[in-house]
Specification:
AcylCoA_DH/ox_N, about 15% strand, Acyl-CoA_Oxase/DH_mid-dom_sf, single chain, alpha+beta, AcylCoA_DH/ox_N_sf, 4-stranded antiparallel beta sheet, Butyryl-Coa Dehydrogenase, subunit A, domain 1, 13 helices, oxidoreductase activity, acting on the CH-CH group of donors
Length: about 525
Amino acid sequence: MRQTIEFLLRDWLDVEALNARPRYAEHSLATFTPVLDTCERIARDKYAPFNRLVDLEEPRQDGDRVILPQAAHDAWRAYAESGMLAAAQDEALGGMQLPYTVEAAANAFFARASVSIGAGMLTVGNANLLMAHGTPAQQRVFAQTEFSGRWAGTMCLSEPQAGTSLSDIATRALPDGDDFEADALGPRYRLFGNKMWISAGEHELTENIVHLVLAKIPGADGKLIPGPRGISLFIAPKMMVDADGRLTRKRRVAPSFLDPLVGRVGEPALGAVEYLRNDITLAGLNHRCGWRGTPNTLLSFGDGRHPVRGMAGAIGWRVGAPGDGLRCMFHMMNEARIGVGLAAAMLARSPGARRRHGGQRAGSRAAPRSRRRHHPGAAHTALSATPAANGTSLLHPALAPRAGEWLGLHQPTRHSRRLRTWAERCAATPRSHGRTRPGNFPGEHTWLTIICNSSLPNGPAAGWKSITSGSNVAPCPSRARAKCWCATTGCRSTPICAGACPTPSPTPNRWHWAR
């Protein structure tokens, strides 16, 4: 894989041409190579060996806590210390001013080794949104701390009754007092509602978690504004912070002689300080088919279990203008779409499928089990998926910098299909052949991640059939309502296949039918 990435960066993308720009003038292939070396080493040592472990030892809830394997903590620490969270940021912010194309290629090693360990993609996207739309104080307190790896980030969009239809969200944001606009971190509100399917919504990888929450501010009549016009964006940290970015201390208790956590000389034990928690409660964990190492949570905002200043309601500071939340949030959502595309491409390149044994030769139970790639049918499937996987790997670093151009706010769903096409075709190939059963083989969760997290109502998931004819006319096997297209001429005949190619070609045609 390293050879492929270097080929894409050097020979196809001509990444050295970026060095002509003033921002990247100090970079060259000599500086890009150590970045790839570091990411490849961390992925090999801290991620890949524990890919199966985090799949088996799923996150578990213990009250308000989520327990993760120690491997997840070690992987996050190594990733944060590598500086990759701030790789594309200015040197003044502790970054490397690395081109995003190189950063995306370097992150491919982690996605391939174990896509579900850590929450780097969400944290970087969270901080980048604040750098684009937040106030200077919000950037200094929240974004820069996330880039350092001390805090992590999430995006809280969906609710139990509102999945992709964000206009139906019911989380309310009420001004917190008469002086709510005078807060140093931005206009301060109290949030009330529930957020569902929040990845990395609760964990102890970092000392704090910065939630970006979509909520609606009631109108003058006290009612929520229908549709997306009333949606605003808020910063709601797990632990309360002050204007200088320090965690707010709740109270100090006497150190215990039995406390194994001992601070430095002259300081109290770590367990002697209790910090003020925001009114955000872990209401439950969701079981997931793929990405099991990342907690998928149900969060309750403002249920009163952790009152702030004696009142219920999670404290949230508004980002941007009222009603501008969805536009701001798409900055992070677009990055997440590209990151998910990278994950799909790297899952398709997982070594698990190459190591899978498929069966024995007929007539001898004592014969050694052969690799699936030695079976003609499986080999055909794998070879069909290879161009899709390679194409996705190629498209990701090339199209990542153009996310803002391709994924416009006015039609985000339609444009996002352009970046999803290759990954979806790759996902459809294993889905259309064989069976998948939980616990089948060590790489099973890799395919489940692709299969169960994709949505293809009318595309390849419907079950593509193909037939090659020795003449220029290929008969349609169904002669019914079907969608057909000719791989040789590009001709399409929908919705009725007439049973013959409308534009005959002198060479044999390969027709594909979708039932």
